[in-house]
Amino acid sequence: MLGVAKSSSAAEIKKAYHKLAMKYHPDRSKGDKSAEAKFKEVNEAYEVLSNAQKKAAYDQYGPQAFETGGSPKRGGGGAHSEASGAGFGGFHFSGGFGGINFDDILNEVFGAGFGRGASQPRSVNLSQPGEDARFDLSLSLEEAFSGTVKHISFRIFCSCKKCRGLGSADAQVLTVCSACKGTGFFHSQQGFFTIERTCTSCGGAGRVIKNPCVACSGLGRVRKEKELDVKIPRGVDEGTRIHLVHEGAAGVRGGQAGDLYLFISVKKHALFQRKKNDLTCLIPISITTASLGKEIDIPALNKTPLSLKIPAGTQTGCQFRVRGQGMPDLHGATTGDLLVEVVVETPIKLTTRQKELLQELDETGQEAKNNPLLSSFFSKVRDFFADHKG
Ligand SMILES: [Zn+2]
Ligand SMILES: [Zn+2]
Asked: Which of 123, 226, 252, 367 could cross-link to 128 by cystine, CB 3.0-4.6 Å?
């Protein structure tokens, strides 16, 4: 397939493969089915010939050595499965083409940066996804009201700049693990049984980084301060979580980054409290405003003062609804209301003149209609004592 002789050296095989892989690579032969098939065969051939152990098997048994298939036959044990059992103990080859990753081979031969595998290091086993992270963000009610952009910074694993997250000091990313000779496993004989253990040096990948990057010790990520500008939408509330995809910890050796979750809390406000999308505000009014009625200025969260008409005869606890002056809804176009609750304040520290005026009010002889609450209360008290006597 590669057009090399049985006696060819590893360098000659590699060179022949390089030429053919460039020729048939899917990036160049867009959609050409026969080129795709050729590319597969060339890769298959190289996978075999580049591995000394597999090449030895091929030299000895020919192509049949690799036709074990997905499920070995039971009982009969044809020549192929026998061969794989006897000749290739511990030789992990899934059969067919399914187990081979093009990009791994391409990266190995050409170094990272070839074709589809450009930004990715070997995708099998050596990379690991990054962890999700949490950041607690405290906002003012005004910020929650209008939405904002917050600059945050925190310590987290970031992709190593020196090696572009690959963990390798140079382009020749991977080499066969010397501990397990590339199989990813160790075998030891215990009586009749062969015990198989995953290689701890390569984690079972069979490959290790050839020259680990010194900045990240070959991990492809380093812990450092990460800065981020986060857009906070209008209407966020205490307990709102903002999910930022891939802003968590960088993955190991090019693995996908984790996600970042912002947990929002909203600081207490001096004037307003939030109830779902409504805002409440407690406003004190004087007895004269409460008695005579008056248009008063009230605050709004958007800092544009509003006026509110307090009708004559307003009592403590009266609530007024100002439409559309609440919080914007996080998920919709609606806006809550502002609920103003009034408290009538009893004046204190009166001057002699003020006392005289109030005295005068008292002496004018107030009728029941002036104080309906008071007169209804007294009538209940009278009834109570009358019942008691009866
Ligand atoms: Zn690095
Ligand atoms: Zn190993």
From this structure: 252
